[in-house]
Design a protein that fits this description.
31% of the residues lie in helices and 29% in strands. It is an alpha/beta fold. The protein is globular.
């Protein structure tokens, strides 16, 4: 239906028009919920088509997560197939799309996409951006309203740079694009994979943005949140909710007169058969790709979260040797299962070490290193349950060290209390700066403040800890 026909049918000069936006965010490859999401979307699409209402379907990033074998084996291409099948209109990139794939895999990720990809603050470092990458996109309704959509992703500078991508300050990118959006669009939507704090700040500073679709921090707004003149929305994580935004445009006043936002739980819905079938087909293909023999173990390798095991010690030794750091430490919670004797394939390695966690080296003084060691030895730290930071396990577990000798004792509360730390039988120099290799999860937040505060951090990308586990198994398979 063209604009003239729509105007004659609706008489828009004296009427209000409703626009419907639906979105997903932070699915993290929880495909068990995807067929229910598609079932919900199909029902809504049929309803709006029947009632001649404009609808857009959006995704706010972190749709993929290499914790899932399908996303691991297909490097996100399976996620794109699912988005295509569900007829998405526009998506943006989350950090799991941006920093868990090597440069070429991300460059090619959306080559077959049937939807638009917007991310205003990400560029290829060599200036050769993929054809699919746009800062903004525009959609026009049957009545001639123009909807402008911009995407922004979390600026993990230290990860993007070695992957040969340049991630820009999101506020600078938004400032650059907002004038053109305001000129060209009647309604402005921001797909923000920045987190709740940035969303609120943007709403305060940019009142011309009508809708901010939020994510990254996995927050949930069941009924939206109004900040300044924007409505903030968020649908949590893992696909338990689908976000919906209803916008009412008054053609007489030529402005939005109402904004509503909801997050609808979809766990109770029936599965869409077509999407379930596609997941099944891609799972079979993924299992075939991951069935690559790595090693043949002569003996089982035990994994326990609260004691030092042979496999974790050898993995820590590999980390030390690979990074060329002074010392290394790894937590037992990184390994989720023991390995039986016999053949080990890549699928097994992925299953027992599924985290999108990279090796990292930080610089610490001897004094800071001692404080870190004291902290990680406590029972409270070992038993800490962690969500996020790339960690996909249960608890942190016991820390294993390489390059250091620890002398400790167990107190009456079950804590391991540090007595001395030596290297080659010599005490650490409290004022000297040492390099410590570890899993990058400890550089975020306040798990270990001394490490988070370090001004020198080197992230090794695109290698994950499981890539070092592969090396370890290949090296020690014959003499385990």
């Amino acid at each position: 239906m063209n604009k003239k026909q729509w105007n004659l049918l609706k008489g828009y000069e004296q009427m209000e028009e409703q626009l419907f936006l639906y979105y997903t965010s932070d699915l993290h490859s929880h495909f068990e919920n995807w067929p229910k999401i598609v079932s919900f979307i199909k029902e809504k699409r049929a309803k709006h088509l029947k009632e001649k209402q404009h609808m857009l379907l959006l995704d706010n990033g972190d749709h993929l997560d290499r914790v899932h074998p399908m996303s691991e084996a297909l490097l996100g291409q399976g996620n794109v197939s699912l988005l295509n099948q569900a007829n998405y209109d526009v998506v943006t990139l989350g950090n799991n799309e941006g920093i868990t794939l090597n440069h070429d895999s991300l460059y090619q990720l959306y080559d077959e996409a049937d939807f638009s990809i917007v991310c205003a603050n990400l560029h290829s470092s060599d200036g050769d951006n993929p054809d699919w990458l746009r800062a903004t996109t525009y959609r026009e309704t049957g009545s001639g309203l123009t909807i402008g959509i911009i995407g922004l992703t979390a600026p993990f500078y230290a990860f993007y740079e070695p992957l040969r991508w340049t991630v820009e300050d999101p506020y600078e990118a938004l400032e650059r694009e907002i004038e053109q959006l305001t000129k060209q669009a009647d309604i402005i939507i921001l797909l923000s994979h920045l987190g709740i704090n940035d969303d609120e700040q943007i709403a305060k500073n940019y009142p011309m943005i009508d809708v901010i679709v939020g994510g990254h921090t996995h927050h949930l707004f069941r009924n939206g949140k109004e900040v300044n003149q924007s409505i903030l929305t968020a649908a949590g994580k893992f696909g338990h909710f689908v976000g919906e935004v209803i916008l009412t445009w008054d053609h007489t006043q030529k402005k939005l007169v109402n904004k509503q936002a909801y997050a609808t739980q979809i766990d109770h819905l029936s599965d869409d058969k077509e999407s379930a079938q596609l997941i099944q087909e891609q799972t079979i293909r993924s299992n075939q790709l991951l069935d690559q023999r790595i090693a043949n173990l002569q003996h089982p390798l035990e994994v326990e979260w609260y004691r030092i095991t042979m496999i974790l010690q050898r993995l820590t030794d590999t980390l030390l040797d690979w990074t060329k750091a002074d010392f290394a430490m790894l937590n037992a919670g990184l390994l989720l299962e023991s390995l039986p004797a016999g053949e080990v394939n890549y699928a097994t390695v992925h299953r027992i070490c599924p985290h999108p966690i990279n090796p990292c080296v930080v610089q610490l003084t001897g004094k800071e290193l001692i404080e870190v060691i004291r902290g990680v030895l406590t029972k409270t730290f070992m038993e800490l349950k962690v969500e996020g930071y790339g960690f996909r396990g249960e608890v942190i577990g016991k820390m294993t060290f390489a390059g250091l000798e620890l002398d400790s004792k167990i107190d009456i509360e079950g804590n391991e209390v540090l007595k001395t730390v030596t290297c080659n039988q010599k005490p650490l120099d409290m004022n000297r700066t040492y390099s410590l290799a570890l899993a990058d999860m400890f550089t975020f937040g306040q798990l270990l403040p001394e490490i988070a505060r370090s001004t020198s951090k080197e992230f090794f990308v695109p290698e994950f800890m499981r890539d070092l586990l592969v090396q370890t198994l290949m090296k020690y398979a014959g003499n385990d």
